[in-house]
Amino acid sequence: MSDRKAILLLTLLTGAIALVATGCGRGSGATNSSSNTATQPTVVDVTTAQAVVMPIPAYIEATGNLASDAQSDVAPAVAGKIVEVNFDIGSYVTQGSVLIRLDPRDAQIRLDQAQAQLQQQQEAAKQAQANVGQAVANLRQTQARLGVVDGENFEIKDFSQVKSVTAQLELAEKELKRAERLLETGDVARNVYDQRKSQRDSLLGQLDEARSNAAVAKRAIDTARAQVETAAAAAKTAQAAVGTAEAQVHQAAKGVADTAVLSPISGSISERNADVGEYISPSVPNSKIATIMRTSTLRVKIDIPEQTIGKVGVGQGVSLQTSAYPDRKFAGTIARISPGLSTQSRTLTVEAEVQNTEGLLKPGQFATVRITQTQPENAVMVPVSAVRAIADTNVVYIVKDGAVREQIVQLGLLENDLIQVKTGVVEGDTVATSNLDQLTDGTFVRAV
């Protein structure tokens, strides 16, 4: 090989080695850079806020089931075949509206018969009353003829003819006795004595006749009075018969009215057991045709622990929430309080009323109830954005020394954008309020 060729080959080998060395150096530098990046910790940018203590309304929290304010099972008062049904499940009915109608023909026939009987009894009573008037007129006429005042107790000795003859007889008796003395002394003739005696005897006969006439008159008055009493008794009996007939008419009219079964309350139909053509009877067990619930006002029963019974009273406000409307609160008022505690649970039953004019709440719903207290209480509050829900737990991330600590918390009352933390956070703790989904316990963070 020539020197020139040897120099050229050496130059090529030197360049190749240099290129290889350069490539190896670059590869080694890249590897070192990646290694340095992998060993540095991840830092998450977060916004933060401090937990603060502020007064919030104090309340007693309990649970209960909603129930209708009034519920009525409707059943017919009379038996019959259904000819009309005016409701269905879910229908809203007003008090007094017709739910069903029964065939009224039999009831109407009974009413017509009762009305005819009443008319007959009224005519009979009218005639009996007329008889009373006639008997009274006869009595007064008899009394007037005999000179007896209405209502006066008539005696035979008071009869005018008897009184007149009695007076004449007394005078004749005196004249006879005087004539008898004079006859014994010879101062009067025998014929004068006989004349006086004849007069006295004649007046005795007249007195007997007057007394007989007075007895007849007394019997006439007694008979007239008896006729008045008999007529009055007959009129009274007839009037009683009218009363009985009127009661039968009222009963028959009620039977006609009862063929229309009315709603006893205003509310919604929760159960229907009636169909056209069906025969129903109140004497049959479970003859209910419908169940009506009044839902404009609902009741909720709350069991209050023994240690807090002094904090509740009638008229106190309550706040109610249901799972169907988690973001809405319904206002109510405590209306009734049980007089005693349950011996088993040592709780006091309190009943609150909740207005339901919109119809959103339904009987049977489960509700969380809060009874607001008059004195507020201090509570630790954090922004709602600081709370993260993981499965069935709530956590916050407390920032300290550039890292976060995951803390399970128990939440309480929501006030605007802040929420009460009952356990897990204290006043002054700094909590993360953003990018919570990128945080875990121990994550390094940078406040921005």
Structure description:
The chain has 448 residues and is α+β, with helices and mostly antiparallel strands. The chain has three domains: 81 residues, conserved putative lor/sdh protein from methanococcus maripaludis s2 fold, CATH 2.40.420; 88 residues, Elongation Factor Tu (Ef-tu), domain 3 (Beta Barrel); 148 residues, Orthogonal Bundle (Helix Hairpins), CATH 1.10.287. It has four helices and 22 strands. Strand 17 and strand 18 form a beta hairpin. The N terminus is likely disordered.
Topology:
Layout: H1 3-39, E1 43-46, E2 48-50, E3 52-56, E4 59-74, E5 80-85, E6 92-93, E7 98-102, H2 105-146, H3 160-185, H4 190-257, E8 260-262, E9 267-272, E10 279-280, E11 290-305, E12 317-322, E13 325-341, E14 347-355, E15 366-372, E16 377-383, E17 388-390, E18 393-400, E19 403-415, E20 418-423, E21 430-432, E22 444-447
Parallel strand pairs: 1-22
Antiparallel strand pairs: 2-21, 3-16, 4-11, 4-15, 5-7, 5-10, 6-9, 7-8, 9-11, 11-14, 12-13, 12-15, 13-14, 16-20, 17-18, 18-19, 19-20
Helix pairs in contact: 2-4, 3-4
